[in-house]
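Reopening this one. Same input as before:
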Amino acid sequence: MWEFTDGLDIQPNFASPTFEVLRDRIIGGTQTTHQEVATDLATAWQNDCNLRSITWTVQANEDTRLAAEVTQAERELADQEHIHLEQEAEAKLREAEKKKPKINNFKSGTAVSDTLTPRPSQYTIHKLKTFEFVELWYFSPDGCKETSDEAKRTADNAFGFTRVDNFVALKPVASFKALCKAIQDHSLEWCQFNLAKNSFLLYINKLNWPEKHQQALTMFFMNIVAHPCRSEPFSE
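Same output, byte for byte:
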């Protein structure tokens, strides 16, 4: 690429003796004078100078534009690389947070009970979920303890078949096996009945039984507890 230095090119004196031979060749057999030839040469030189100046300006502007595009592309590439590195760092941080041991949250000021409420067996809960009859004994402390001991005695790999929707699935035997030691409701001692009915009412509420049914059963048990015979000697 040629360079053009505006203002440094000096127009030659085409009327000087230095260009006399050139003027003679141009004149040849014409009637043109040396002054006319010198003027034509000066005009041609100026036109050429102007043309080169225009060409140089166009080329300079194009070079500037290309350089700006390259700079912009490099800046965008650097920005993308920076964003990519930030995303990688954030992903690593999230992964590290997932692997970091976590401690369970708690509600401050909440009192912790000093007793454990007996928990009925899976068999009992299943009966409640399917709205099937189940003896109150399973909700008593004795029933909960007996079913818990039985579950521990049953092998962990003891499974049976059950139907879920249209599929056959495996289910722990303890979850649908009744105990032969279960006591019928009419044979319960008063203490066993009183504790079992409270646990029964608690769990049908947890399992979202219809409100109407819960109220009816609550009134049923209250009527038993408040029955006049309870005031008689040896009523229990």
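So the earlier flakiness isn't reproducible anymore. For the record, The CA atoms of residues 2 and 56 lie 8 Å apart.
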